[in-house]
Amino acid sequence: MALAVSFWGHSSFAHHGLDPDIRDATRRLEREPASVEALLDRGHLYRLAGQFEASLQDLSKARALAPQDAAVHFQLGLTLSALRRDAEAMRELELAVSRGLVSDVAHFELGSIHRRAHRYEQAIAEFRMCLVINGVPKNHLALGQTLSEGGRLDEAIRVYQTGYEQTRGEGLLRAWVSAELAQGNHQRALQLMSDVWKRKVIAVQWYLLRAQIIEASGKARKARQIRKAALRVANVRVRSNPNAANLLDRAAAREALGYRESALQDAQRALKQAPADDTAREVVERLARTSGAP
């Protein structure tokens, strides 16, 4: 029988109350030290908290107790992937799938591992499987981005368009606009964004994307003005709510204006709040390389 799993996937930006949850799981393990379920629970929570080695320890114990359990291999694979121990992560995730796990998260992680290694055809196959299981915006987006990175931009645009029409996912619309821009279709990109500018509240990322289009049209000064407006909006939102999402938006605005050091500081603050979030970690790693930070 197939085991369907749609929980314990990638983290969100909200981790409030996580330590009490870990304490509860620890108390349960004190009562039931051989409980695979409790080890899985705490291993998952440790991963969300960015405590990857502690997560690995619990999940390795769970595997020793239940070596045939697909959920154990799944959780262990996610933690190994977070540690960038990709070959081991692939083995665990593939074991989970072979033992009946049905999870778009497992295929998403396998696709991400292939993508990191620039094995685009294998990554595309995994992300397509994600969409067979679950047509959420994130899966459309990952497929489109991988097609784009693999040089198949026309296909990526079709994926973004279809995904947006099916889900109305905001990230898919931004990706679609960006892909049209990459194709040199400036007017088409602006047309797709037209409704965005009628909103009372506009995301920082939309300002930055509009600036890219304007700059590509040869209007560098106007583009910089839009980027400065994006930073002003980001500053207001960080002051109101300095969560990881708002910090990453401000990091993007600062980077677009060439303020790499302050952008890195914002990204590091975001990663501290959301230590298991792949986006925050990737931004920190990239900015650290380009800013010369240790």
- How many distinct domains? 3
* Strand/helix succession: EHHHHHEHHHHHHHHHHH
End-to-end CA span: 49 Å
**Overall number of strands:** 2
- If helices are DSSP runs of H or I spanning 4 or more residues, what is the number of helices? 16
Give the helix proportion (percent range): over 70%
Question: Which structural class is indicated by helix and strand composition?
Answer: mainly alpha
Quick one: CATH class of the largest domain? Mainly Alpha
In short:
With 294 residues, the protein is mainly α.
Description:
Helix content is 74%, strand content 1%. The protein is mainly alpha-helical. It folds into three domains: 17-101, Serine Threonine Protein Phosphatase 5, Tetratricopeptide repeat; 124-189, Serine Threonine Protein Phosphatase 5, Tetratricopeptide repeat (Alpha Horseshoe); 193-285, Serine Threonine Protein Phosphatase 5, Tetratricopeptide repeat. A two-stranded parallel sheet has the order 1-2. Helix 9 packs antiparallel against helix 10.
Tags for this model:
294 residues, 3 domains, 16 helices, Serine Threonine Protein Phosphatase 5, Tetratricopeptide repeat, globular, mainly alpha, disordered N terminus, 2 strands, two-stranded parallel sheet
